[in-house]
């Protein structure tokens, strides 16, 4: 991903708001309005080209969510089709197309706006500071806990017999229980350390 | 289940976003009042935990696996609104970073899993816990709450998805959703129960409003539940039951003529359940012929009954460890890797 593309240089706030507006426009487009959707698809295509994101990557991510979206569209299409007086297949296709546009736009947003920038943008756009700080904290420790989980998993594999059959519910739940315990105890230590350094609940960053 | 963009209609998306934002604002204020400057680290760490724990896949069958949802678990450990805030943080990251759940459906997803799942689940948990008392109460309460939270979330999901689609459409989807989530709910209850039990055996003080020493055996510290929480729990449980029963009940207007002509509901009740297993495999609802709808309803009600009983049974089984005859508490080994 080129770090100096035209979209990458844009302020993250602009990108976030623009993506949100686009998604809302897609959702608000009336059922069966293929022309509007075509127009929006052109906008998306231009943005994808500008972003320099790999189309194959976008495509595979899109494919991964297609099953769920297809299933849900098929389930909901019945009532919509009756009201809009369209055929069931057309409604399903329409829902799929609309969802794909919204989904790809969010994907492109993440491609051109790194997560820390996006977080900062959300905070500046009026997200409650506590929520922003919480999400930042979560972002910081998610990988720590994930590594912890991996270590526990390999320790278990190294020491125990590999059981075939059975659900392994007890073992896996204990794994999660230990993870919860360690997370909470880590939080106690981290909170003590933060308090010792003068934490009073307001977050201060270099960008402020 | 995360609702993607577009699948709920624009009007519903607008309404749910507004409700979700208001609920989150209230929840944040409640959590800050309770935890003060510790809010960030507590909520952030718990959200990180839920995120990581959701990656542990429980094999359910060939090719199928489920994972912990965590709403009730975080509510039990940190309190109802904290549970909702934790879920909100997880959902926001999943939506923006992983495109899991749509941007316009963020409010709806938060209502389902945060407000209904965690806060509603806690409303079920609190009175059960007080009524039974002690650690056993915590365990049984959290398991029953986990089961109901999944069902209530499924009910809310169906309302958002299909409320504008007409009554028949709505009930058809509701039946199927309830059926599927009766199974998912048992899994969530089991995992939640095992994790809560582990926590109770190792660090019971970490549970929100921890059972005190006098309460620890569930005999002395029994408090009578307050009327407010009892009402809330009754309401939540009634809603959960309604998810199962409504396909029958709301059919009544259509069935009135039928009832007038014949005698009550007897003919319908006597229809033998064709599905031998209480949890039939999931079929594609659209291709289900209209004839099968009644059987789906029957199976749904049956699954509700079986699931509720099963969860209660599992909960009692797991709670044996806290009874005087069971293994002594505190002797559990956890493998410190």
Low-confidence stretches of chain B: 213-222, 249-291, 325-337
Estimate the helix proportion of chain A, in percent: over 70%
Distance between the termini of chain B: 32 Å
Which oligomeric state applies?
A: heterodimer
Q: Report the biggest beta sheet of chain A as strand number plus sense, adding barrel if it closes.
A: none
- Unreliable runs of chain A: none
Q: What general form of chain A does the structure show? A: extended
Order of helices and strands of chain B: HHEEHHHHHHHHH
Strand order of the largest sheet of chain B: 1-2
Structural class of chain B: mainly alpha
How many individual helices of chain A? Answer: 8
Question: From the alpha-carbon coordinates, what is the Rg of chain A to the nearest angstrom?
Answer: 23 Å
Secondary structure: helix percent of chain B: 55-70%
| Major sheet summary line of chain B | 2 strands, antiparallel
Structure overview:
The complex is a heterodimer of chains A (208) and B (337). Chain A is mainly α. Chain A contains eight helices and no strands. Chain A has helices at residues 6-9, 12-28, 34-51, 55-84, 88-112, 115-124, 129-159, 169-196. The two termini of chain A are 28 Å apart. The mean pLDDT of chain A is 85. Chain B has 337 residues and is mostly helical. Chain B contains eleven helices and two strands; from the N terminus they run ααββααααααααα. Chain B has a two-stranded antiparallel sheet. Chain B is globular, with a radius of gyration of 21 Å. The two termini of chain B are 32 Å apart. Mean pLDDT of chain B is 75; it is low at 213-222, 249-291 and 325-337. Chains A and B meet through helix 2, helix 4, helix 5, helix 7 and helix 8 of A and helix 1, helix 2, strand 1, helix 4 and helix 7 of B.
């Amino acid at each position: 991903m080129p770090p100096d593309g035209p979209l990458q240089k844009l302020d993250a706030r602009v990108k976030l708001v623009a993506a949100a507006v686009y998604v809302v426009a897609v959702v608000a487009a009336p059922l069966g309005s293929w022309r509007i959707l075509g127009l929006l698809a052109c906008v998306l295509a231009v943005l994808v080209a500008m972003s320099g994101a790999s189309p194959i990557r976008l495509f595979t991510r899109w494919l991964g969510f297609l099953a769920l979206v297809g299933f849900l569209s098929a389930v909901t299409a019945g009532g919509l089709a009756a009201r809009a007086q369209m055929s069931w297949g057309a409604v399903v296709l329409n829902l799929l197309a609309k969802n794909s546009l919204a989904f790809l736009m969010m994907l492109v947003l993440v491609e051109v706006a790194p997560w820390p920038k996006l977080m900062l943008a959300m905070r500046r756009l009026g997200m409650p500071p506590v929520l922003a700080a919480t999400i930042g904290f979560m972002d910081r420790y998610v990988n720590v806990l994930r590594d912890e989980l991996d270590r526990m998993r390999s320790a278990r594999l190294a020491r125990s017999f590999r059981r075939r059959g059975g659900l392994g519910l007890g073992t896996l739940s204990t794994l999660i229980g230990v993870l919860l315990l360690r997370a909470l105890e880590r939080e106690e230590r981290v909170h003590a350390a933060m308090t010792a350094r003068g934490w009073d609940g307001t977050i201060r960053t270099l960008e402020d | 289940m995360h609702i993607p963009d577009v699948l709920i209609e624009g009007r519903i998306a607008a309404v749910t976003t507004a409700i979700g934002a208001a609920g989150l604002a209230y929840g944040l204020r409640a959590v800050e009042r309770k935890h003060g400057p510790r809010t960030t680290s507590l909520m952030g760490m718990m959200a990180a935990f839920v995120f990581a724990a959701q990656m542990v896949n429980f094999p359910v069958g060939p090719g199928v696996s489920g994972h912990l949802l965590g709403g009730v678990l975080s509510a039990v450990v940190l309190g109802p609104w904290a549970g909702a805030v934790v879920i909100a943080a997880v959902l926001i990251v999943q939506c923006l970073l992983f495109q899991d759940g749509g941007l316009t459906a963020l409010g709806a997803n938060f209502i389902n899993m945060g407000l209904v799942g965690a806060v509603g689940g806690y409303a079920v948990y609190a009175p059960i816990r007080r009524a039974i008392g002690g650690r056993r109460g915590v365990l049984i309460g959290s398991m029953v709450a986990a089961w109901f939270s999944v069902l209530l979330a499924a009910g809310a999901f169906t309302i958002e998805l299909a409320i504008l689609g007409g009554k028949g459409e709505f009930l058809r989807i509701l039946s199927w959703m309830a059926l599927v989530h009766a199974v998912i709910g048992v899994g969530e209850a089991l995992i939640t129960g095992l994790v809560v039990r582990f926590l109770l055996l190792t660090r019971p003080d970490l549970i929100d409003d921890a059972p005190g020493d006098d309460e620890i055996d569930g005999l002395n510290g029994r408090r009578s539940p307050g009327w407010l929480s009892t009402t809330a729990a009754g309401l939540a449980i009634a809603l959960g039951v309604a998810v199962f029963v409504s396909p029958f009940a709301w059919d009544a207007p259509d069935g009135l003529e039928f009832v007038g002509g014949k005698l009550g509901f007897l003919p319908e009740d006597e229809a033998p359940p064709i599905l031998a297993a209480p949890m039939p495999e999931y079929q594609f609802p659209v291709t289900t012929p209209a004839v099968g709808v009644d059987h789906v309803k029957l199976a749904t009600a049956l699954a509700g009954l079986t699931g509720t009983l099963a969860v209660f049974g599992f909960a009692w089984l797991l709670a044996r460890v806290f009874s005087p005859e069971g293994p002594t508490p505190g002797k559990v080994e956890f493998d410190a890797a």
